[in-house]
Amino acid sequence: MSRGGSSAVAALLVLAAGAALPSAFAGEAPGGIPWGESLARALDQAERDGKPVLVDVWAVWCVPCKEMDDTTYRSALVIREASAFVPLKVDADVATSFVERYRVDAYPTLLFLDGRGREISRWRGAIAAEPLAGLMRQVGGGYTAYRLALEREGDPASAIVVADYLTAAGSPAGAVDRLRASLGALPDSASSTRDALELRVGEAQLAAGESKAACRTFERLAERAAEPETRGRALIGLVRAERLRGREARAEAARNRLREEFPGLAETSGL
Fold it and tell me: What pLDDT is recorded for position 144?
């Protein structure tokens, strides 16, 4: 064989060997999602770039995790949406402190975090490309307003912005927690503001499926809220919460009161 022929064969062998090598699990793959492996670096980048963090918590033995890598994360739709995030892979068997901190109990789990490491939302289990892209749009769409609201800590209007964002991102329970924290910081004299925040608490509880807690919140407001509109909106929430609990007689009583005291709100609410 000629020297040129030997060189060509050697080159082909090198190419074949390279093609057989598995791609790195984390790190930037050509045209794929540039996964990182360090939480600290991801949070630093998130703060610097003003982006939320997308965390894929996986395990070597997790079959659905591998399926996500082979399908969902290869989707052009998901790859495009991922450009609005700082993507991070977390090996659950290695990063046990992370798993404990965020109370991860299923694999895969997708977490959306802000630049301070606070949870925005999560998804437990495998998810297909289209619904994941939709969730990513929800989280990414309001993130700038969310960050600005966080900078005005203690401002009730900002607390409502944060709560609305978390609810839209799929975490109404997180919205309840943030609103309650804001309520705790309010002076007793701010009665109207307190009522407005409590109303949002009830609505977030309802969105989170906490209908019993929502009923208690709405009942209090329907009786003692200073502003008539707040009492009316509380009655609307009470009707819906009682229906979720299957207590039709109580729901009907709240609806009758709404129609009698706040006919305009009853009409616009469709109740």
Answer: 95
Q: How far apart are CA 159 and CA 179, in angstroms?
A: 6
SS3 at position 1: coil
What's this model's pTM, rounded to 2 decimal places? 0.79
Catalytic residues: 62, 65
Q: Where exactly are the structural domains of the chain?
A: 25-141, 144-206, 210-271
Give the C-alpha separation, 71 to 178, whole Å. 35
Q: Cβ–Cβ contacts within 10 Å for residue 24, how many?
A: 9
Question: Which segment of 177-186, 196-205, 214-223 scores lowest on mean pLDDT?
Answer: 177-186
Closest C-alpha among 123, 144, 145, 149 to residue 134: 123
- Measured from the Cβ of residue 151, the count of other Cβ atoms closer than 10 Å reads 8
241 exposed, middle or buried (CB, 10 Å; 0-12, 13-18, 19+)? buried
CATH architecture of 25-141: 3-Layer(aba) Sandwich (3.40)
149-198 pLDDT per residue, tens: 988 877 888 989 999 999 999 999 999 998 988 888 887 767 888 999 99
Closest CA to 200 of 257, 189, 225: 225
Whether the pLDDT of residue 12 is over 80: the answer is no
